[in-house]
Amino acid sequence: MSHAGDLYGLLAEFEQPEELLAATQRAYEAGYRDMGAYTPIPIDGLAESLGEVHSRLPWLTLLGGIIGGVSGYVMQYYACVISYPLNVGGRPHHSWPAFMPIVFELTVLGAALFSVLGMLALNGLPTPYHPLFNVPEFKLASRNRFFLSIQRRDPKFDIVATRKFLDELHPHGVHEVQL
Amino acid sequence: MSDSYERDSDDRGAAAGLAEHGRPPVLEPGHTYATVTDQISSIVLARRAPRSWLFGFAVSFVFFMIFLYAAGYLLARGIGIWGNNIPVAWAFDITNFVWWIGIGHAGTLISAVLLLFRQAWRTSINRFAEAMTLFAVACAGMYPLLHLGRPWVFYWLLPYPNTMTLWPQFRSPLIWDVFAVSTYALVSLIFWYVGLIPDMATLRDRAKGTFAKISYGILAMGWRGSARHWKRYETAYLLLAGLATPLVVSVHSIVGLDFAVSIVPGWHVTLFPPYFVAGAIFSGFAMVMTLAIPLRAVYGLQDFITLRHLGNMAKVMLTTGLVVAYGYLMEIFFAWYSGNDFEWSLIVDRALGAYAPVYWSLIVCNLLVPQVLWFRRARRNVPLLFAVAFVVNVGMWLERFVIIVISLHHGYLPSAWGMYTPTVWDFAQFFGSIGLFLTLLFLFIRLLPVISIFELRELVHETSAPPA
């Protein structure tokens, strides 16, 4: 047994996604909240079983699109009407239909950048170090094993009781995660 | 198939193909999370490259050097070394540009459109189709830049406050092109990279060498497969797919407008934007096939890239090929129906003039040869599919040559007619760019997983009851 102060939490290892999903639901019902589930594939409903999920990502993407599109239009308006008005074939300076392709491209660009950078930021990536990487078995989280972690900072966490609880879920194994 | 497959005979399972009768599956049965992970990652992590890889890389690299040599000579001497001149001011350079950018459409189309339509068969081919897109767009971008004459001031194309107090001409499709192509390149790059993040984590966790562990670790950005992360990841991926889909259509439409907005006979056609998009998909799928067939043979990926994939790609090629054929017919119809002598004169010149052999080769390659794909037996004959795809690649290059060079050489006034003859430098720059493309592709095959590993694991999850 290691020193309790160095403990991040406990990590239970499962072989099937269905087992992990059931275990997560059981743990949530048992009152655990500071949990994490780690899988090699996205599992439907797993994030929800860890608690409420509100994604701000769609709104961020919309915001990025609006910023891209509006700035594209303003840039072209400023260039063609204010900064350097140029008569091309008698067309109006504010020839907005011709501005649309660039407005469209910049809308897509802004939305795409906000979407990806937003996803990374909300996920807290890049994260070069994480205590879970201290567990050798955790390497399989990117291959064929499914993990549930319960963190020590959870008010219900108790090294003996929580380990007993996890053992009752019939995992492949339970590992201690060092900080 | 046993009961375990029938469990999934809802539409998701049907899309994955195992529940259907008489059609090859999208993933050969018997694979588990572990086997797909190990088999795909072993291509990258294996200590030695196969001899065929070394040979292919060496040949590609030689052509890449030819590309650099031709570009270097071009910078030293100017574009006079090419055959371009008035009236044919656009020739191999723009032909190659449009050809490459068209090839670059299949990747995003396969990744984005087929994702939105929930086509599970996309999984095995999307990764390297996306890589192909990136490399093709990189090759495409070279040509307008080199054709500038002074490529070192390419940034004049971009709007930025400058001491000349000038702005780009925003009403010109050529400037729309700058925005469309650069946006497309950037969005394709992030789409590809986002798709790679979970696989980078897999490679990080499976790599033996320290250098590989650190490199893949940096690229994985600390991905640990957290359920909350997956949730946002999937949202972002879906949003990107939704954004990339209209983007693909816009890019080649704008390339089409480069021509259609002008008044050159043969270019001034409203049909161009959709006809260019169909041509792009046609050539893109042809290139995916040309690359996928040798790839699956060399690396033994027949379990993942099955006859189902090849058959489906053949059907997409056949369909878009018919749209393109419709375009050829409509070009002739428009010229006749417009009653415009100059337009009609151009059509006659295409069919009977100095470049007629090019036009008829195009008709054979793009219109006649793909019709063999109507037959199921042809769609299951791998060498034949490879041959058809190769012929279509050639045909699509000829199509752009016909559109660009023949139209320019036969303008309004007979006094302004002129011939274009490519020089050795035109050919060097063209074949060299194929070397650039293949060099990047060989490096990609060696360093990154050619098939999306985590999506294959998902496919295992969806198509079979997991092993006990």
What is the helix fraction of residues of chain B, given as a range?
A: over 70%
* Annotation field: number of helices of chain B: 18
Describe the main β-sheet of chain A briefly: 4 strands, antiparallel
Per the principal axes of the C-alpha atoms, what is the gross shape of chain B? Answer: globular
Identify the most extensive interface between protein chains: A-B, 62 and 61 residues
Give the SSE order of chain A as H and E letters: EHEHHHEHE
Strand content of chain A: 5-15%
Structural class of chain B: mainly alpha
Number of strands of chain B: 0
The mean pLDDT of chain B is: 88
Describe this structure in words.
The complex is a heterodimer of chains A (179) and B (468). Chain A has helices at 17-29, 46-49, 57-83, 96-122, 159-167, and strands at 7-14, 35-38, 146-151, 173-178. By secondary structure, chain A is an alpha+beta fold. Chain A has a four-stranded antiparallel beta sheet. Chain B is globular. Helices cover 70% and strands 0% of the residues of chain B. Chain B has 468 residues and is an all-alpha fold. The two termini of chain B are 17 Å apart.
